[in-house]
Design goal:
CATH superfamily of the largest domain: Periplasmic binding protein-like II
Number of strands: 12
CATH architecture of the largest domain: 3-Layer(aba) Sandwich
Strand order of the largest sheet: 1-8-7-9-6-10
Number of helices: 13
Strand content: 15-25%
CATH class of the largest domain: Alpha Beta
Shape: globular
CATH topology of the largest domain: D-Maltodextrin-Binding Protein, domain 2
Order of helices and strands: EHHEHEHEHEEEHEHEHEEHHHEHH
Distance between the termini: 52 Å
Length: about 325
């Protein structure tokens, strides 16, 4: 029986000083005051730009006493972990950060993992010979900010209106099964799942190279936790950049390690990363510094775009959205 998913018309984008002072009067302040802070916990789903962070962990380039990772099935699950305070930070796209902030959860971007240039895609059956041929078809899409953004970009490129096709809501972990069931004509997806879909016969007809950079993957932390975890963030960023250097200088070893985590062969891993710009430390400093920081300017433009398409309730204030304090201070991190 075909996988039908959940049909929708519009994807929903939708300190302790006084306490310790009291304890000190009983001679307990010194003991408890030396207790280390809880580790920084970061949520992230499988995505090529995030995998260097996990490569650093697996290679013991990170202090796991100070850092914890929560593997999630999707960005939606990572956002829920932020909402419920299971984590203090998450790997998300910039537009997802804006969506969470619109819910009243202050987040600050402290690291840019990657900029999508072909890694977010629309795939279709062989019978779909043009974007306009999607009229009246069933298109699978994740109920997320990125899914919604890609769908709107597709509509613009194809000259279609929302009512002219059937959007089927699917979590990213449902994409392959839904495609194999035969119930979809096209699907909005991203790597590494997009490559798995291509292996299953789907054909790429549209991707993020077709519009100005808008899908940017970042590390965002709850703003109130930023000062408490600044050093943890620097350790994490240093590990990420070390893994990036390893990827650039020991490509074969890195590809095999990354392929294992993404369940892809070496050739497919190579293809996946061709669709991403991976900013190094210097590029991150450029993006997160300045008056205003370039990333803040991008966020302002993205906020305007999402608001116009009713994907945000209101434009983001941009207050405390970007900070560079989590970047390493040395030349190589």
């Amino acid at each position: 029986m075909p996988f039908t998913g959940r049909s929708l018309r519009t994807p929903v984008c939708l300190r302790r000083r006084g306490f310790l002072g009291t304890l000190a009067a009983f001679g307990l302040g010194t003991v408890l005051g030396c207790r280390p802070d809880a580790p920084l916990t970061v949520a992230a789903h499988v995505w090529p730009g995030y995998e260097l962070m996990f490569l650093a962990r697996d290679q013991a380039w990170l202090d796991t006493a100070r850092l914890r990772f929560l593997r999630t099935a999707s960005a939606t699950e990572s956002i829920e972990a932020l909402r419920t305070r299971r984590v203090s930070a998450a790997a998300l796209t910039l537009d997802e950060v804006l969506r969470v902030r619109s819910e009243g959860i202050p987040l600050t971007v402290v690291l840019v993992f990657d900029i999508s240039s072909g890694a977010d895609v629309v795939l279709a059956k062989d019978s779909i010979d043009s974007l306009a041929a999607l009229r009246g078809k069933r298109i699978g899409v994740e109920d997320s900010a990125v899914g919604s953004l890609m769908l709107h970009k597709l509509e613009e490129a194809a000259g279609l209106q929302e009512k002219e096709f059937i959007a089927v809501s699917l979590r990213i972990d449902e994409h392959v099964a839904a495609w194999n069931s035969g119930g979809l004509d096209a699907i909005v997806s991203y790597e590494p799942t997009a490559t798995l879909l291509e292996h299953a016969g789907a054909r790429r007809i549209f991707d993020s190279r077709r519009f100005p950079p808008a899908i940017i993957d970042v590390l965002a932390i709850r703003t109130e936790a930023l000062n408490r975890h600044t050093e943890d963030l620097r350790i994490l960023a240093a590990g990420h950049f070390r893994a990036l250097r390893h990827f650039n200088t020991h490509r074969i070893d890195a590809i095999h390690r990354l392929g294992s985590s993404m369940k892809l062969d070496a050739e497919s891993v190579t293809e996946v990363y061709r669709g991403l710009e991976l900013p190094d430390l210097d590029r991150n400093r450029h993006l997160l510094r300045g008056v205003p920081p370039p990333l803040l300017q991008t966020a302002a433009e993205l906020s305007d775009l999402l608001t116009r398409h009713d994907l945000l309730l209101r434009r983001d204030s941009l207050d405390k959205l970007v900070a560079d304090v989590g970047l390493p201070t040395g030349i190589n991190g």
